[in-house]
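Hi C.,

You asked whether I'd gotten around to modeling the 277-residue construct. I have! Everything is below, sequence then structure, no commentary in between.
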Amino acid sequence: MAGSEQQPEVTGGPALRRIVLLAEYDGTRYHGLQRQGHTPLTIQQEFESAVGRLGVTEPDFVASGRTDSGVHATGQAVALNVPAEPPVRKYLRTFNALLPADIRVRAVAECPEGFSPRFDARRRTYIYRVCALEPVPPLQRNFVAFAKTDLDVERTRAAAAAFEGRWELSAWRSAICQATRTLLTIDECTAVPPHTDERTGEALPWWTFRTAARSFLHHQVRLMAGAIVAVGSGRLGLEELRNALAAGERPKSVVMMPACGLCLTRVEFDPERDPFR
């Protein structure tokens, strides 16, 4: 239930306060965000290990969006319990000293009463980067997927735009997805072709697919990226994609794209509930 989280109760050990962190991470070596029994290499376990070193045994970790193995984030919101002292602002430096170098905290704030990064989120934005060049630029190999073929600019842009709207997306998720609500609205879906940054002059030889919605299904964005690539390469017709979406289906030619190209870039909250405003 939205806003169901409570401030931590002190049952022993240090007095606690609840804070919200704005985190970014390179997900390459991690088995996703969520704690898993078979491996210690998850984002959640790294945060829990950090607060454990501060004496907190019940961190009550909650994040705004689950990311899978190999998926990255630059705008993940995380709430957890920390000792009531020192002041909140001190925790920016503290966490960045305790966390590994591929996880950084960009901002910290006091957690509003009853606030949940998961249930109070009103919009999540993901980008997916895909490169048609071979080889992928070496400095981007962990952050850009490879498309194996050139993408037509007009077809690729039109394929992305086709996803905007309200759709039954039960066919656009993994077999293990447990979501019960699959009729979802995609607020934005755009495709930006390779270009040169006007400000820096840096060549950016990859496509950037950007999609925003209140919520997503497991593997949905990677399947959407696969459909955009299929249309852009000519393997799938634009009308075939549009008809499939209208029918609540996914074309058989759509292949899920690799995790490395996906990044959670932003989570938005109502202004009166946003801890970072």
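If it helps when you're writing up: The chain is about 20% helix and 30% strand.

Thanks,
B.
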